[in-house]
Amino acid sequence: MTDSAVIDIRAVTEDDLPAWTRTWGNGYLRPYTEHSVDAIRATARQDRLIGAFDMDRCVGTYRSTPQELTVPGGAVLPVSAVSKVSVAGTHRRRGLLSRMVATDLRGAFERGEPLAVLDAAQYPLYGRYGFGPATAMAWFEIDVHRARLDPGRTADVSGVLQVDAREYLKAAPAVYERLRAVQHGALRRDEQWWLDATGQRPEGAAERPEPFFALHIDPDTGEADGLLCFSAEETWGSMLPRSPLWIRDLVAVSSRAEAALLRYAVTVDWVATVHLPYRAPDTLLPLWLGDPRAARVSALSDYMWLRVLDTPRALSARTYGVEGGLVLEVTDAAGYAAGRWSLQGGPDGASCVRTGRAPDLRIDVRDLSALYLGDDSATRLAALGGTEELRPGALARADAMFRTGRRPWSPRAVLGRRYQAGAP
Ligand SMILES: CC(C)(COP(=O)(O)OP(=O)(O)OC[C@H]1O[C@@H](n2cnc3c(N)ncnc32)[C@H](O)[C@@H]1OP(=O)(O)O)[C@@H](O)C(=O)NCCC(=O)NCCS
């Protein structure tokens, strides 16, 4: 077995791409096709691709993308979005993941990216590197026959338009941009993303059947204010329709649009079950049904993880629920976020500077990261042991400041066939 120290962690070149893509596919159980490399190449122009190489054999993959994250209050911060993390089965548990993470976080910090984010495939992996679970997701399965939307009449779906991929592609990105401006936890979706989502990108498109698309049109402005993409499969049993419908993307900027698009999906004829993935756990969507209990939670989980790299920049970019001040002693084994920081913030803005004053709270970077978008509470994190109250009342103040009225949400769409295998 090769000594791990001689395994090289380095940037990937054009020549490395086929082997890198194949190694990643092995790790993610995705069969390699002739389009796999083209698909990576088309979407990775500005990305940092890292590989672990044993001699000249690729045994580890890691990618980070320059992204944008909306934080509470609506500011947008540049973030490093990590993906495609894998280590070959022959080389696991020898520290290669740790070395790739360390290389990439150092790069992000040096480039001035104040945060890194990722979707963790496995919970136990990333806390040790200072990431904390910053958003959660609920996945629903709606029993159409219990939803109490009377199929004998038409449920109120006014404003909904069935459209094709081209019409959708013209209107949907602007709807998403309106949501992203106000939704803390949202990431940018670029042009390549939309081409991919609508099956309009040449690489790999042929492998996917085209989904169905709908828009909601605001009657006051005539503009689209909601989007829906779904797929369905015709299924019958004993002459009864039992088709499943999988919502792939549902984004709306008004309650009216959200309600109409959900009702439209739930009243598609022949459908018995609607799968609704990746919502914030406090989503209102089930409440648009006649009986909200028809929407059963089939998965409830942490989702996007976040890592604070630049404490003053991150904390001063967001707004806070109430006016207040806190001195935070941030611990960070890797050093990036560490220090004693005076945070002064409120609903209109915040400042965060280094201080010599006595701290109110000692908080590990993992907990600060979990707290950052407002999804967790300092009181809960203290009970788990990573945060310590050094001045009475500091936990309650941190809760009042950091918590947000609605939970953060990082909207995700499900692309490709994989979804149909079922909930995660
Ligand atoms: C997850 C994966 C990348 C780990 O790679 P690796 O090189 O074996 O990880 P490392 O040896 O650097 O391990 C780092 C630490 O994580 C721990 N760890 C690694 N994989 C783990 C797992 N699946 N469960 C729990 N702990 C794990 C190691 O024990 C080690 O702990 P330590 O720091 O206390 O010593 C690899 O197993 C893999 O490719 N899995 C399939 C794809 C995947 O899940 N990728 C993650 C996508 S977000």
UniProtKB/TrEMBL annotation:
Residues 7-156 form the N-acetyltransferase domain. Keywords: Acyltransferase, Transferase. This is N-acetyltransferase domain-containing protein. Signal peptide: none annotated. It holds the Pfam family SCP2_2. The active site is at 126 (proton donor). Coiled coil: none annotated. The lineage of its organism: Bacteria, Bacillati, Actinomycetota, Actinomycetes, Kitasatosporales. Belongs to the acetyltransferase Eis family. It comes from the Bacteria. Acetyl-CoA binds at residues 85-87, 93-98. It comes from Streptomyces pharetrae CZA14. Homohexamer; trimer of dimers.
